[in-house]
Design a protein that fits this description.
Blueprint (H helix, E strand, L loop, with lengths): L1 H20 L16 H19 L8 H22 L9 H26 L3 H29 L10
């Protein structure tokens, strides 16, 4: 029973990371593109989430430590790359705080997923169990914040439920 819970936490980290893959963005210093409206930004964010989800659909499902070690890096790379690309989007002022929250929390999820993948690659099940037990509640808290920001922005495809 405890092992199933731990696998659920690992899967939750990977799922949330995937949900966040296509989302984020932040203030851009570019003066060449006009700011998007809230609706335009939300649509662009949703489109990016859908695209990122599609790009990782062939990776497979994380069922445990071995899967996370082998396919987790693909999810992580997609997440990092998409977040990097989204910094080019210019959010409107009315949702800039939510976009900043989204980015900040997504970066925390990237760190958590990266740490879990590193331990999984070492094939150290004791360290893996300890990390999932300690990180699980914090990851759930961060995931809730990511979803709240995505919903406030109007990008439901960028929530865990939207994946």
């Amino acid at each position: 029973m405890k092992r199933r819970h731990l696998l659920g936490i690992a899967l939750s980290i990977a799922t949330v990371a995937l949900a966040a893959t296509g989302c984020g963005g932040g203030s851009s210093s570019s003066d060449t593109a006009p700011a998007m409206s809230k609706a335009e930004f939300a649509k662009a964010m949703d489109d990016l989430c859908s695209s990122a989800t599609a790009s990782t659909s062939g990776l497979g499902e994380v069922q445990g430590m071995e899967d996370l070690a082998s396919i987790g890096p693909g999810y992580l790379a997609a997440l990092e790359g998409t977040v990097d690309d989204l910094y080019d989007l210019e959010p409107p002022a009315e949702i800039e705080a939510q976009v900043d929250d989204y980015i900040s929390n997504t970066e925390k999820l990237i760190d958590a997923l990266g740490g879990l993948i590193a331990v999984a690659k070492q094939n150290d099940s004791e360290a893996y169990v300890k990390l999932t037990e300690s990180a699980g509640p914090k990851v759930q808290e961060i995931s809730t914040a990511v979803d709240a920001a995505a919903n406030a922005i109007g990008a439901p495809a960028c929530t865990a439920a939207g994946v």
